[in-house]
Amino acid sequence: MSAGISGQALLRAQQEGRKALVAYYPVGFPDVGRSLDVLRTLCGEGDQPGADLIEIGLPYSDPVMDGVVIQRAGTRALARGVRTRDVFAAVEAVAATGTASVVMTYWNLVDRYGVDAFARDLAAAGGAGLITPDLVPDEAGDWFEASDAHDLDRVFLVSPSSTDERIVATANACRGWMYATAVMGVTGTRAQASSAAPELVDRIRRLAPDTLVGVGLGISDGDQAADVARFADAAIVGSAFVKRMLAADDAGTPEDLGAVRALLSDLAAGVRR
């Protein structure tokens, strides 16, 4: 597997003797402008370490993989006018900090925009590639063509139920890294990390030893990030950040990023243990 731009972010963390932190946040919540502020914050400020890779979510009306926290944020973003094109402004904002980003999107949004046009605009904005939770490699011919043409990474997902054959095929299709979902279910913070995650990553290591693996779904604090960092190349955190911004939005203080900064500091310390 080619490491690609996003995989290089994981490899740089390894060179520093630690694992990588991937931070997810959706564009458009609480509104487009403030979501860009959150994304810049997640890249790190001053002496505060940031995420190694930013995962920018594109809100969708039928988010089958997303739990209630991200669904609530996405619903508000859509109601407040976020559009597909806003994701490119988010990618540009992250790129300006020097941090790499990938876009997490349901495939219908890319298909409707135009697969090659989306890839073209994503590359022009400085994005590294796409995470496509509802697109499997078997049905990704247009995306293979467009991502090759515009030198973009392809991050596909596997789960604890994936067969050995599916894991190998997915690893061969990825460019950058592979997203291993730690649980059978939707996104959301959990009291403890999934016990299925180490076994899944062990299978990936055995079947596709050159594959970089990020583990997501459920990580909510630095302790859980440290647990995941013991066996994966990256810990992926999303709902925990969104939950804090939902609380700020509910309180009428969406400009207050203090809780996001505190969580980022805890998680960054976790992957460095």
Short characterization:
By secondary structure, the chain is an alpha/beta fold. It contains 12 helices and 9 strands.
Give a topology summary.
Blueprint: H1 4-15, E1 20-26, H2 32-42, E2 53-57, H3 68-79, H4 86-95, E3 100-104, H5 107-113, H6 115-125, E4 129-131, H7 141-149, E5 153-155, E6 157-158, H8 164-173, E7 178-181, H9 196-207, E8 213-216, H10 222-229, E9 234-237, H11 239-250, H12 258-270
Parallel strand pairs: 1-2, 1-9, 2-3, 3-4, 4-5, 6-7, 7-8, 8-9
Helix pairs in contact: 2-4, 3-11, 6-7, 10-12, 11-12
What does this structure look like?
- Mean pLDDT is 94; it is low at 184-193.
- This protein has a nine-stranded parallel sheet.
- It is globular.
- By secondary structure, it is α/β, with parallel strands linked by helices.
- The two termini are 27 Å apart.
- Helix 8 (164-173) links the parallel strand 6 and strand 7 (178-181).
- Helix content is 47%, strand content 14%.
- It is built from twelve helices and nine strands.
- Helix 2 packs parallel to helix 4 and helix 10 (222-229) packs parallel to helix 12.
- The protein has helices at 4-15, 32-42, 68-79, 86-95, 107-113, 115-125, 141-149, 164-173, 196-207, 222-229, 239-250, 258-270, and strands at residues 20-26, 53-57, 100-104, 129-131, 153-155, 157-158, 178-181, 213-216, 234-237.
What attributes characterize this protein structure?
single chain; alpha/beta; 273 residues; 12 helices
How is the largest sheet built, in terms of strand order?
5-4-3-2-1-9-8-7-6
Cα gyration radius (Å): 17 Å
Report helical residue fraction.
40-55%
Give, in order, the helices and strands.
Answer: HEHEHHEHHEHEEHEHEHEHH
- The termini sit apart by 27 Å
Spans of at least 5 consecutive residues whose pLDDT stays below 50 are: 184-193
Number of strands: 9
Large-scale geometry: globular
Mean of the pLDDT scores? 94
For the report, how would you describe the main beta sheet?
9 strands, parallel
In DSSP terms (H or I, runs of 4 or more residues), the helix count works out at 12
Portion in beta strands: 5-15%
Structural class: alpha/beta
